[in-house]
Write a structure and sequence with these properties.
Elements lengths: L1 H10 L10 E4 L7 E6 L5 E6 L9 E2 L1 E2 L4 E6 L7 E7 L5 E4 L15 E2 L11 H10 L7 E5 L15 H15 L3 E4 L3 E2 L12 E5 L6 H13 L3 E6 L3 E3 L19 H4 E2 L4 E3 L5 H18 L3 E4 L2 H5 L19 H17 L4 E4 L21 E3 L1 H12 L10 H4 L10 E5 L11 H4 L4 H17 L3 E5 L24 H19 L13 E5 L7 E7 L5 E7 L5 E8 L3 E8 L16 E2 L1 E5 L2 E9 L4 E9 L2 H14 L1
Parallel strand pairs: 10-11, 10-22, 11-14, 14-18, 18-19, 19-20, 20-21, 21-22
Antiparallel strand pairs: 1-2, 2-6, 3-4, 3-7, 5-6, 7-8, 7-9, 12-13, 15-17, 16-17, 23-24, 24-25, 25-31, 26-30, 27-28, 27-31, 29-30
Helix pairs in contact: 1-6, 3-4, 6-8, 12-13
Length: 638
Amino acid sequence: MNEESLYTFGTGENFHIQEYFGVHQDEENPDYYYFRVWAPNAEQVWVIGDFTNWRENALAMTKNEAGVWEVRTDLAKAGQLYKYLVQRQGGQQAEKIDPVSIYMEKRPGTSAVVKTLSDRKWTDGLWMGRRKRLGFKERPVSIYEVHAGSWKNDESGKPMTFSQLKDELVPYLVKMNYTHVEFMPLMAHPLDMSWGYQLMGYFAFEHTYGTPEEFQDFVEVCHKNNIGVIVDWVPGHFTQNDDALAYFDGTATYEYQDSDRAHNYRWGALNFDLGKNQVQSFLISSALFWIEYYHIDGIRVDAVSNMLYRDYDEGPWTPNVFGGNRNLEGYNFLRRLNGIIKYRHPDVMMIAEESTAATPITKSLEEDGLGFDYKWNMGWMNDILRYYEEDPYYRKYDFNLVTFSFMYCFNENFILPFSHDEVVHGKKSMMHKMWGDRYNQFAGLRNLYTYQVCHPGKKLLFMGSEFGQFLEWKYNHELEWGNLEDKLNLKMQGFTSHLNQFYKEHKALWQIDDSYDGIEIIDADNKDESVLSFIRKDKKGNLLVCVFNTTPVERRQFTIGLPIAGLYEEVLNTEMSEFGGTWKEGNPVTKTKAGLWKDYQQTLTFTLPALGASIWRLKRRLGKRKEKDEKNAERNEL
């Protein structure tokens, strides 16, 4: 087993390196532990820790032909702390983390904990079976994005651990009708200010958030409440802290040999050498570990552009062997990553955070794509936020911002994100971005979220945005829960919950998310009134008519064309008083009238609320025979 593990690690084909590297109990004699670490160019490596009085009685390790150092000892005990003391070429010594530890001490310390993987008897089989059977592509996906350290504090004022989040966050997700929760990175990281995106422990659960077992408990409870769990993961770059992965044995071990390629100048980090076999084994093992050990339902791969393009960073760069800017190693690694994960776990969602259009992200590997399931639609997000921030008087001149996405919305499989990146660094909160006074800001926010739900693509909303938090998100401060003492915030929270449930209940909004078969544009040319209208369809042909008024002008006797004669009922009006609007009653059930409107033979006339969205459902289809029967019934009543 050891020889095979070493060989496949060196060929880039060991996808469970944590079963060999790190710390492991001797199966034949549990009083002993093995410690193993990859440091091929080190002069010497020792294990130091609580059980050696640190450097005083350091345990010397021996190196094998694969550059892996090993020692067996009966001194170590579960729960104790340890590090590796690495002597680099030239005699310099550095204390380093265990790259494959599954748990590390509380910050600012970076020692690993002597802890072995525990077998768990999971009780989420019903969810896992349903996930395998139904998948996610023709299912509703409404994601609540969370930073675990700042969602809510406990009574002592400290961020909640996952043991507490299990009791607080899961019921909230149920109440708010989300289908998934996505966490910003939960892997060990040295600084909160990085939000978790400067990682050091790719297998280690961040101590601040509790224990690995507590996160397993949390996932299990989510699954029992029909909520999927997605985790952010950063395989492109890592923290350059000297006690972490950086130049682990004194040479470029995990990073590129070329200094310019190794250094990520924009983020003050180091880039993984994605073409190195051992690094591929390390990273793919990390991804599979989180999927298999924690039963997570999806991985969002951060900063994909940084892995795809040599010139993405701000520093100097050199072309590839073909003279282009593509990072060939990164491109091939991402294809391999998705190929392996989808082969083993086809029902796990792979998501790319990527902002360019030069590489097909969600096309299959056979079509020369990267094989991701979804890509964040950053273009849509930028356009639509710019539009909704604008004074409505000028929106008619920029109406293309709200319609352009229909030209490319099926080029990739998209998630429509309103993420953490949009509510920091002076960009203002989602509610604060909206035009007008406080009343109109909430009206605009309800309109915007309804547009997001009706637009093709899966959905994501960052925490706090669901109730219209006014202040920007702060990574070191819990959400502004006190906002909910305000009626408008409380009604906004209720509206978001209602909207999520509305989304889940209407197949037309999610069953055909990948082709124009699921949408029909009624009118994308009404710039002067700034009104957009379109139809969403499910596989049975059921219709939802979606109409968006993006100006604060109520439009009475507003008419659109429709393809089917019938009785239509308004199923959602964002200006109802229960949501924070002024309408006490919505539009009545309305019958279409025969009449040419653009290419349509039928028209529907109703009142369109100011700065509101009005969604209609075909209640009863009327053909010629039904119309005749109705007229006869009307005569009989008279």
